[in-house]
Design a protein that fits this description.
By secondary structure, the protein is α/β, with parallel strands linked by helices. It has a single domain, classed as Alpha-Beta Barrel (TIM Barrel). Helix content is 40%, strand content 15%. The chain is built from 9 helices and 8 strands. It has an 8-stranded parallel barrel with strand order 1-2-3-4-5-6-7-8, surrounded by 6 helices. The protein is globular and about 45 Å long. The structure holds phosphoenolpyruvate. Phosphoenolpyruvate binds next to strand 8.
């Protein structure tokens, strides 16, 4: 099956562009997921439903009602999403999402059976205190969340910057996350690395035993690069 490659398209692609991207993958197997804007979930699902899971990038903390501009777990599920990213650093830092918001979103995701890719990571200023930063972000999880949860370690300073964490950085962070989850909940958890992953550096990252896959922003927008990442992830096992 290979290690997992998750695309985070962020706020990119029209429906036509998403369909064009998916046409490159409609006959290809691989262990990948595409997390896209709400308008793209249904078209991507229609193109790839037999081969890959489709995901949202966020859901509303509330179930339904008077929350103008928000999109609910039930809506993304209805459009074809099986997964949602929660706690991406752009949500935490640009939209000021807090641990309290994320706790509510986790509850709603659990209620609607959405698998969660839960992002954690430290800023450059926080790097020396990485353990306390990651633990603070992980502390909101409960045993119930962990049934089907994937964690993505994404150092904020490596997202979209071209800077990749060193092997040592990744080993340290993934160990903190995996040990915390095992110690507190008794579960093993899959941990992805994210932050400027591209075809040129993917093999080095994916060969690490503690890395169960990658979460990819920029390089996931190009079908040729994305396919190369899936191939690499499939070969490292
Ligand atoms: C991301 O958006 O989660 C990400 C890791 O972006 P990039 O690969 O562009 O750094």
């Amino acid at each position: 099956m290979g290690k997992l490659v998750v695309a985070n398209w962020k706020m990119n692609k029209t429906i036509g562009e998403a369909e064009e991207f998916c046409s490159h993958f409609d006959k290809r197997a691989g262990n990948y997921m595409i997390c896209c804007s709400a308008t793209l979930i249904k078209p991507v699902f229609d193109c790839l439903k037999d081969r890959s899971k489709v995901g949202a990038q966020n859901i509303c903390a509330y179930e339904e009602g008077a929350y103008t501009g928000e999109i609910s777990a039930k809506m993304v599920k209805d459009a074809g999403a099986d997964v949602t990213i929660l706690g991406h650093s752009e949500r935490r830092h640009i939209f000021n999402e807090t641990n309290d918001d994320l706790r509510k979103k986790l509850d709603i995701a659990n209620k609607y059976g959405l698998q969660v890719i839960f992002c954690v990571g430290e800023t450059l200023e926080e790097h020396d205190n990485i353990e306390s930063v990651l633990v603070n972000q992980l502390e909101i999880l409960t045993k119930e969340d962990l049934g089907n949860l994937i964690i993505a370690y994404e150092p904020v300073w490596a997202i979209g910057t071209g800077k990749v964490a060193t092997e040592e950085d990744i080993l340290v962070a993934h160990k903190i996350v995996k040990d915390y989850v095992k110690r507190n909940y008794g579960n093993d958890v899959k941990v992805l690395y994210g932050g400027s992953v591209k075809p040129e550096n993917a093999a080095e990252i994916l060969k690490l035993n503690c890395v169960d896959g990658v979460l990819v922003g920029g390089a996931s927008l190009d079908p040729v690069k994305f396919e190369s990442l899936i191939k690499t992830a499939n070969e490292v096992l």
